[in-house]
## 1
Amino acid sequence: MKNWKDNVRKVVPYTPGEQPKAKVIKLNTNENPYPPSPLVGNAISGVTLDSLRKYPDPACDILISAIAKYHGFDKENVFVGVGSDDVLAMGFLTFFNSNEPVLFPDITYSFYDVWAELFRIPYVVKPLDDDFKIIASDYEGSCGGIVIPNPNAPTGVAEPVSFFEEIIKAHPECVVIIDEAYVDFGYQSCIELTRKYDNVLVVRTFSKSRAMAGNRIGYAVGSKELIKYLSDCKFSFNSYTMDTITLAAGVASIEDDEYFKARVQDVIATREWTKGQLSELGFSFPDSKSNFIFAKHESVDAVHIFEELKKRGIYVRHFSKPERIADYLRISIGTDEEMRTFIAELSKIVK
Ligand SMILES: *Cc1c(COP(=O)(O)O)cnc(C)c1O
């Protein structure tokens, strides 16, 4: 007997971090502990009910123009989507159509293999070295595409622009996607490489540094040709990805650069303080350039710490796979007060 279930696209979905209903200290999904700019609030209240009658602008012109101007590019170099997850998924669909495998690290954003499975893209993961660094020689030779976050997640380890330029130069046969979800927290961006190479797509998000995870805004910068291909796929899938309220909110965030930079500096300062405290408590971690720290205790088991923190209303993230990161916890940076409470509770657990 034939069964309809034989023709279902079966996938194992991505598991996002928990969003508890109760008020907790939430250090588990790399959200920003500070609200977005007050100008974002004004922009949202400024959207009239009547304007919601109509479909949003499918070209997302106001937001694309603001992002293009901010980075000094033309509008044709910018693509926007419903969070960078949407932009990345569209990038996989558009650019990764070779029979050769797409390459990415073994320890990285755990959505990449999910999209590869969903779209039936062949892929090979390349193990990071013992210091969680990407081994450049793993990315030599012809392939179907490359995707790497910089800084990498969940390790927080970053590589300089020159590292990526070598990879991009060596791969005219495929598109290289650099996922810069955390680059605003103090590291070099590869955006300028998109002027020189037409096969690189740099993807950014408003979710972390701009504190707008709830709005869902992601974008990509690339050559005009690359962005045209990406847009053609998007318009073949869903014309109205960005809603009217979100478009207005996104523009307001871009326009308040002073507020944005000040909050990013606040997070960086708290991160550096937290690093010192964690070291004193017997944790080791690769040097993080992002808004989280990926840490392992010298003697106390990660799952035990995770559970004990949770009992105390503090949520961090633990990944059981791959096995070599099972001893680590990913700790997002909260406010100073949240991190002081976190360190105080943590010191009782690991003492
Ligand atoms: C958070 C994150 C994303 C997705 O962010 P969006 O909220 O969808 O914009 C993409 N890549 C990495 C590495 C991330 O950590």
## 2
Amino acid sequence: MTEYKINTKCVQAGYTPGNGEPRQIPIIQSTTFKYNTSEDMGKLFDLEAAGYFYTRLQNPTNDYVAAKIAALEGGTAAMLTSSGQAANFFALFNICECGSHIVASSSIYGGTFNLIAVTMAKMGIKTTFVSPDCTEEELNAAFQDNTRAVFGETIANPALTVLDIEKFAKAAHKHGVPLIVDNTFPTPVNCRPIEWGADIVTHSTTKYMDGHGAAVGGCIVDSGKFDWMAHADKFPGLCTPDESYHGITYAEKFGIAGAFITKATAQLMRDFGSIQSPQNAFLLNLGLESLHVRMPRHVENGQAVAEFLEKHPKVEKVSYSGLKSDKYYALAQKYLPNGGCGVVSFVIKGGRPAAEAFMKKLRLAAIETHVADARTCCLNPATSTHRQMTDEQLEAAGIPAGLVRMSCGLEDKEDLIADIKQALD
Ligand SMILES: *Cc1c(COP(=O)(O)O)cnc(C)c1O
């Protein structure tokens, strides 16, 4: 599928039925798989043969969809997870252990921040956060001898900062560790981080990839470019024998293209579960089949709404990297030439009460803890996800009380703007 354009891959990559086989991906709704001899099954357990034995580790439906996402991102292997949270945890924990250190952009999704700053810290994995706008010197200074990964989001949720992927990749590689990029907001239709030097790409497929608010899920894609063996001292989990798998050394047996995902499947899925259900993988694939058609419309609506808001007297500030006035416009031109996503953040004059009153008046846009849906939705962090914080604390965190995050859906942009206009009035 590598020779085809992304639009074709969205529709057809990952699954090619044989003669007389189902045209659509079959949902293999089975926890287990049958074998004729124990010997056959033993080979699977020893990773001597490829195949399925238990859906906690692998399922054919999931693998078809993962193969499509790998093709879209330009990677060599991928796995689906039960959520975006599981994808980011697995991507990091596959190469980090107690005593390891991570360098992460400070501008990331709140759930991921909590995962690494609080929960993974309890596992003895510490993180240094750097501003996505830091200089190369500041970035390099964040590394330690025990640093094992660098992490950032292409377009951060909800701050909408744009990551300078090449800058972060260069620093990661200089220190012999991979760059992991969460590419949830642009999707591979608008940016493919591997082409800019990222080594591992993660997704919350719950967002645009599914795109219909139907199924929670995640995905990890390996670029197959990071040479684990060249930094074997840093990655013993990949470069020394795994006694829980009969002494297999993943980087030797599965090579540069397969080691990362094989280890994540064989160890992390085995031990933690967190597999996506085949039914959800099927729904995700329906979303992927139209991803290349939907993303341009999300961008068109986001751009139109951002331009309208920017001119409105009741609006203090708009963040959208497609606006010439945006701090990230230049980076977006480089990494997101076809636009980023449909999410726009803006600050209404009058703070919390004004934001609340505005949202109450919206007719099309629903109030939801969600983004990247076909239906427009919005959220005021000060009265929902961040309601425990005072106005002063919100201001310090860069989330003013009047901030509204609006995820523009696939409706007609004139209807969306008319809705926003009457609510602001
Ligand atoms: C939503 C989101 C996540 C978490 O994904 P879930 O599927 O909700 O677990 C991670 N990263 C980003 C950028 C997100 O927007």
